[in-house]
Phosphopantothenoylcysteine decarboxylase (Adhaeribacter pallidiroseus), 186 residues
Amino acid sequence: MLRHKKIILGVSGSIAAYKAALLTRLLIKAEAEVQIILTASASAFITPLTLATLSKRPVFSSFIKDETGGEWTNHVALGLWADALVIAPASANTIAKAANGFCDNLLSATYLSARCPVFFAPAMDLDMYAHPAVQNNLSKLRSYGNTIIDATHGELASGLEGQGRLAEPEEIVAILQKHFEVSAFA
């Protein structure tokens, strides 16, 4: 069901960003077209080269593609191109920006421009995930019609154990497949 679907994968700053590589591979294997938008903080956890190689497309990370020639990345065109926008991992910062309409980077501007279904897969430490501010922001995102792929319970990078782990890439792909199967019959 993902064949020829145009998926924007937004990767924000979290140690779970390394899972974006497997998620990209699974989406490509399912024959989706994958365009990755990497936030500045995400590039500290995973390189654009890795994701570009797996997606077979250049990775976008800023409004300006080519600093010398002044070519810009059009967030509106990206928002119109996509059949789905998946933000995985979605950091507390990215969730807060999206929930409150802040748009100081390419990913948040694309989110605000997107006409397609949007899926947020949070990843953060358990106390951050449980914080009322984060939970309120997730509720806001749900109220806007977005799908939240809940964080799972398990061992976290901090060494603590609890809810905050990014859903496994296979689960994210299964949720996307189910979404497109249901919409095909709607």
